[in-house]
């Protein structure tokens, strides 16, 4: 579970990278700063790489993020 955090991608490629390595992954209610390529997450696919992805927002704007934004 990755919940209620501030995830900072400023010093890496993406703040969230979700490959096909684990199961039962819940990413909810986080404030996310995009990575160096301007993305918040990559390879986040509901039901494939993560179980749940809800309530995550852009840290600067508060805009709700969709998976793989």
Blueprint of the fold:
Layout: E1 2-3, E2 6-8, E3 16-17, E4 26-28, E5 31-33, E6 41-42, E7 52-54, E8 57-58
Parallel strand pairs: 1-4, 2-5, 3-6, 4-7, 5-8
Summarize the structure.
With 69 residues, this protein is mainly beta. It has strands at 2-3, 6-8, 16-17, 26-28, 31-33, 41-42, 52-54, 57-58. Helix content is 0%, strand content 29%.
- Can you summarize the main beta sheet? 3 strands, parallel
Average pLDDT rating: 88
Shape: globular
Q: Specify Rg, calculated over alpha carbons.
A: 11 Å
Strand content: 25-35%
Cα-to-Cα separation, first versus last residue: 19 Å
- The helix fraction, in percent, is under 10%
Number of distinct beta strands: 8
Spatial order of the strands in the main sheet? 1-4-7
């Amino acid at each position: 579970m990755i919940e209620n955090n501030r995830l900072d991608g400023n010093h890496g490629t993406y703040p969230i990278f979700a490959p096909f390595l684990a199961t039962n992954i819940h990413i909810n209610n986080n404030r996310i700063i995009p990575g160096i390529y301007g993305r918040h997450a990559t390879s986040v696919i509901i039901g494939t790489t993560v179980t749940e992805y809800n309530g995550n927002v852009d840290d600067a704007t508060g805009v709700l993020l969709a998976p793989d934004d």
